[in-house]
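Ligand: NAP. Inputs:
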Amino acid sequence: MNLKGKRIVITGASSGIGWALLKRLSASGASVVGVSRNPQRIIDELGNRGIKTITCDVSDPIQVDRMLEEATELMGGIDIFVANAGFAYYGKIGNSNWEKIEQIYKTNVISPIYTLQKLTENNKTEPLIFMVTISALGKMVLPGFSLYNSTKFALDGFVRTYRMERPKNVKIIPVYPVANFTPFFEKAGGPDTPMPLLARQFPSMTALCMKIGLQVEARSVYPSIIFIIRCILSRVTPVDVLVQIVERIRFSGWLKRHGERN
Ligand SMILES: NC(=O)c1ccc[n+]([C@@H]2O[C@H](COP(=O)([O-])OP(=O)(O)OC[C@H]3O[C@@H](n4cnc5c(N)ncnc54)[C@H](OP(=O)(O)O)[C@@H]3O)[C@@H](O)[C@H]2O)c1
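Predicted complex:
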């Protein structure tokens, strides 16, 4: 697919992977709208490239409805929607905290599913590509990330099932990035949050793979070759057990420094 002229919305576009993708897609001649709660960075740095922004907290359905209307008005329609906004908590699940659980599920799981439904309920014929940033943690587990892990497994389960039910005009492309050098980990647990050791990537590379994934209309996007190898090896060797042992030691170190906070 030629991305030139395509009307694209990206959530979580003010930072990290979404930011890198916003730059790549706009450079391809697409018409791009960047969505976040604080889009000032996009306006300051990319406003002169004609990139438009919408302020929206994607965990709020009323704001999502408004964002979709605004994006449609700005561009005359939406050809590609990239549901990328998401976050994690790093730490031990201890005391019950309904609000935290609700907030991460609303942002990481409910919002992409709701948005997809909104986009498709009145569109039965126009082609739509819905790309959704899941994570390598939608396929494997990592100590310290139990809530986050569960949201990404939920999203992975949704996408794999939705594929079998989807309308003919809709294509869904899940993305499974490994650890990226973005503010994600610091936001999750502070500046000393350990990044997984196995595979790490720069968001510019992840964004490049996502762009190619859109161009070739891939079934799914795995931006790291190391992770692809790990997925194959984990079926026939105990590679995951070894990874878990190392990551549990690192998590214990973090817990010693921070206490049992959650
Ligand atoms: N970094 C990694 O290692 C990694 C690995 C695999 C998957 N991922 C996934 O990749 C996606 C992007 O992560 P990232 O690494 O780029 O993180 P990031 O640098 O922290 O960026 C997160 C983006 O999401 C937006 N966001 C968060 N909550 C939001 C909300 N309620 N409403 C609207 N926007 C919201 C943030 O914008 P505002 O704060 O301005 O709203 C920001 O633009 C996430 O879904 C994450 O789970 C990340």
